Amino acid sequence: MKKKPSSLKAVDFFCSGGGMTNGLIQAGIEVVAGIDNDPICKETYEANNPGAEFILEDVFDLEEKKLAKKLDLKKNDDDLILIGCSPCQFWSIIQTDKTKSEKSKNLLIEFQRFVKYFNPGYVLVENVPGILNRKEESGLKKFVDDLENDSYVVHYDIVNMNDYGVPQARRRFSLIATRLQDVPIKLSPKKKKLTLRDVLGEANGFPKIGPGHVDKSSLQHSTAKLTEINVKRLKKTRKNGGSWLDWADDPELKRKSYRGKDFKDNYGRMSWDKPAPTITTKYISVSNGRFAHPDENRGISVREGATIQTFPKNYEFRTASIASAAKIVGNAVPPAFAKTLGKSIVKAHATRK
């Protein structure tokens, strides 16, 4: 007998290229739309998530009533999930210039308008851990307080996504809220924690390539170019986990300036038998973190980063450059974690009294 599909439907705010959307679809949830203000995400989002409409809007300008009419959404719908995984650079603990991300610090507050208006059955939020560390400033405290005042049961924590089928050490703030009081939502960690060896390498379909490789196939196993000095640096970096310390005293290769311990991973190689480091929007650049291949003298490819983020191998990143593709990948909620969230809601929703 064919399993009856879930009655749940979702709207994915700040959807980027569709990581959360794709994971929820895999869990059996209908995602009716994704909303984002970045036009480079549209083609990637719609090509990989059939049935989900990409709405190009800035949430600051989006009106609740217009969204309700456009998507035929009803208030107080027990089957509705609203998702708010807003861009999080402003609240990141990484010490970088926050000027460009200043506007994004209030996105959670804007998302709250829609939660208040629609009063959905479920609310999902994913963000950097810093949003919890500064919960007054980030608006998180008010967000949670308002949910609880509206009779939602709110569960939140800092999770390491490596516990949920993601082969990287990716710590994130995760929140699930429901106003359906009899619905017990619980995330189930995986028994096996994945490492880089489980997903990358020739045995997993990634042929050896060099820096600046252009792959025009659907695999998109393309890499960024490297300067001559960075190629020399990688050649002197110990395989499988080496770092800039391997050539720190070389008069030709050593860096003229080093900005302290916070940048110790720059130019480092990943390790086969450990989870990958957190994939960022700059993961194709070896100078922006521990993003060099464990063995080969290059940075990781677009597809390798996407695989570490658990995007399906057939997920197409339809962008004009590998830098744009990397931005989509790095900003994404890993689909495997999104699927875990979705399955927990589907299971709980089916047990309603």
Q: Helical amount among residues, as a percent range?
A: 25-40%
Radius of gyration from CA coordinates? 21 Å
Low-confidence stretches: 90-101
Order of helices and strands: EHEHEHEHEHHHEEHHHH
SS summary, helix count: 11
What is the general shape? Answer: elongated
> How much beta, percentage-wise?
5-15%
The CATH C-level class name of the domain at 9-189 and 333-350 = Alpha Beta
Strand order within the widest beta sheet: 3-2-1-4-5-7-6
Please tell me the CATH architecture of the domain at 9-189 and 333-350 by its name: 3-Layer(aba) Sandwich
The biggest beta sheet reads:
7 strands, mixed
Distance between the termini: 24 Å
CATH superfamily of the domain at 9-189 and 333-350: Vaccinia Virus protein VP39
Structural class: alpha/beta
Give average pLDDT, whole number.
91
State the CATH topology of the domain at 9-189 and 333-350: Rossmann fold
Walk me through this protein's architecture.
With 353 residues, the protein is α/β, with parallel strands linked by helices. It has a domain at 9-189 and 333-350: Vaccinia Virus protein VP39 (Rossmann fold, 3-Layer(aba) Sandwich). The chain is built from 11 helices and 7 strands. Strands 3-2-1-4-5-7-6 form a 7-stranded mixed β-sheet, with helices on both faces. Strand 4 (80-84), helix 4 (107-118) and strand 5 form a beta-alpha-beta unit. Helix 1 (19-26) crosses helix 11. It starts with 8 loop residues before the first strand and ends with a helix. Mean pLDDT is 91; it is low at 90-101.
